[in-house]
Amino acid sequence: MNRTKRIKSIESPEMTGVPDSHMQILSIIRQIPRGKVCTYGRIAMLAGLPGRARLVGKVLRYSPLANGVPWHRVVNASGCISLRSGESPVRQKSLLEGEGIRFNLAHRVDLNQYLWESRHASKRRGK
DNA sequence: AGTTTGACTAATG
DNA sequence: GCATTAGCCAAAC
User: Does the C-beta of A57 come within 7 A of strand B?
Assistant: First the structure.
């Protein structure tokens, strides 16, 4: 399957520069409900791109935030906010706190409590 | 065309 | 828990 191959011979001359993988990733992020977070790695996995966590970050960086994508609900595997240098994590933190998400003293969220696991799962995660 | 970089992560020590 | 390493891959040098 060609996930990075962009088809030139498509009916629409426009919008041919967006790889399928990016659309998949954005699609997953859009499903993160309010008050929950998801990790880069898990998003990649749900998008059918296991191991491509960095691609998720890249997509978010290049994607205009005007896409209705709840970018602020994406944190790293440690529950910390990962932001590009230059940007303050305060904004993302505020947005999450506004949804009822609490941060601990290490500025981390409790993934045990807030991680969105996409429908089913319901795996036993400690207590 | 080779190297570096990055909104990442799991595995080690 | 922190530092290092290795995998990852597309864009930027």
Answer: yes
Q: Is the separation of the CB atoms in A92 and A117 below 8 Å?
A: no
Predicted confidence at residue A49, as pLDDT, reads 92
Nearest nt to the CA of A53 via C1' is B8
Percentage above 70 pLDDT, chain A: 76
Burial string for A57-93 (b: 16+ CB within 10 Å, else e) reads bebbeebeeeeebbbbbbbbeebebeeeeeeeeeebb
Does residue A21 reach within 7 angstroms of strand B, measured from its CB?
Answer: no
Taking residues A98-110, what's their average pLDDT? 95
What pLDDT score was predicted for residue A122? Answer: 52
Instruction: Please say if the pLDDT value at position A26 is more than 50.
Output: yes
Is A3 contained in some domain? no
The structural domain count of chain A equals: 1
A47 domain-assigned: yes
Residue A62 sits in a domain of what CATH number?
1.10.10.10
Strand B bases near protein CB (under 7 Å) are 6-10
- State the residue range of the domain holding A74: 20-114
Q: Give nearest nucleotide to A72 (CA–C1').
A: B7
